[in-house]
């Protein structure tokens, strides 16, 4: 009798556990159904609005869209799936490279900005603008014939400039200009007696002799 009661109690316990499990599963299913219904209620207005906007946009372009074109485009996308995937891989690799090079490029950009600021401070850009204006003036005032003659005589011009820029000549010109600048400010006696007195100065006679020699050379060149 006791054994039978024990078995009966065990069966009742098992049955109670099964009922509790089924009840829990039913409650869970009900909750999921309720959640789905709530989600559906929330998404329905959004889906309706998206559908409405889609219809409006398609109405604007319906004359340019053909269903056959869309199908053909879809087929091409499917056929080129691997190529698209490779392209995306390359794009991701490029993004990784940009992430790696980004700090280096920022540093290089900062150095370039600092260098340009230093050039601006030293006046390189002002000089460049002046050079552009000079070049513009040359282009505006020289004809094609002038440029041709300049090209024919450029070697002679450069040799002349090279001779004129010799250190001893430049020093002579500079010294002469400095002395002349001071002498011009002084009063000048142009009377005959004053001029005759100056002729007694050896330096004056030497300068006059050199001047006459140069004038002689100029005259010979002009006669030739």
Separation of the first and last Cα atoms:
157 Å
Radius of gyration, CA atoms, in whole angstroms: 51 Å
* SSE series: HHHHHHHHH
Strand percent estimate: under 5%
The main pleated sheet reads as: none
Q: Helical region count?
A: 9
The shape is rod-shaped
Structural class: mainly alpha
How would you describe the overall organization of this protein?
There is one protein chain. The chain is an all-alpha fold. It has a domain at 2-65. The protein contains nine helices and no strands. The mean pLDDT is 79.
Write the layout of secondary structure elements.
Blueprint: H1 2-61, H2 67-79, H3 81-122, H4 124-141, H5 144-152, H6 154-164, H7 167-184, H8 192-199, H9 202-223
Short description:
The protein is mainly alpha-helical and 224 residues long. 90% of the residues lie in helices and 0% in strands. The chain has a domain at 2-65.
Features:
single chain, 224 residues, mainly alpha, 9 helices, 90% helix
């Amino acid at each position: 009798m006791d054994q039978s009661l024990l078995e009966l109690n065990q069966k009742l316990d098992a049955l109670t556990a099964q009922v509790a499990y089924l009840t829990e599963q039913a409650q869970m299913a009900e909750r999921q159904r309720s959640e789905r219904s709530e989600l559906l209620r929330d998404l329905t207005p959004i889906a309706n609005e998206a559908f409405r906007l889609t219809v409006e946009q398609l109405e604007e372009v319906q004359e340019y869209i053909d269903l056959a074109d869309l199908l053909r485009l879809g087929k091409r996308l499917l056929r080129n799936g691997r190529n698209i995937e490779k392209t995306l891989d390359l794009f991701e690799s490029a993004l990784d490279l940009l992430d790696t090079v980004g700090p280096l490029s920022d540093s290089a950009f900062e150095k370039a900005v600092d260098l340009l600021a230093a050039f601006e401070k030293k006046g390189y850009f002002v000089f460049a603008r002046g050079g552009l204006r000079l070049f513009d003036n040359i282009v505006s005032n020289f004809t094609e014939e002038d440029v041709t003659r300049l090209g024919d005589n450029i070697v002679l011009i450069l040799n002349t400039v090279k001779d004129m820029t010799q250190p001893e000549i430049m020093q002579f010109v500079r010294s002469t200009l400095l002395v002349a600048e001071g002498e011009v400010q002084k009063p000048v006696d142009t009377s005959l007696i004053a001029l005759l007195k100056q002729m007694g100065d050896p330096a004056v006679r030497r300068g006059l002799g050199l001047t006459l020699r140069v004038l002689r050379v100029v005259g010979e060149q002009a006669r030739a």
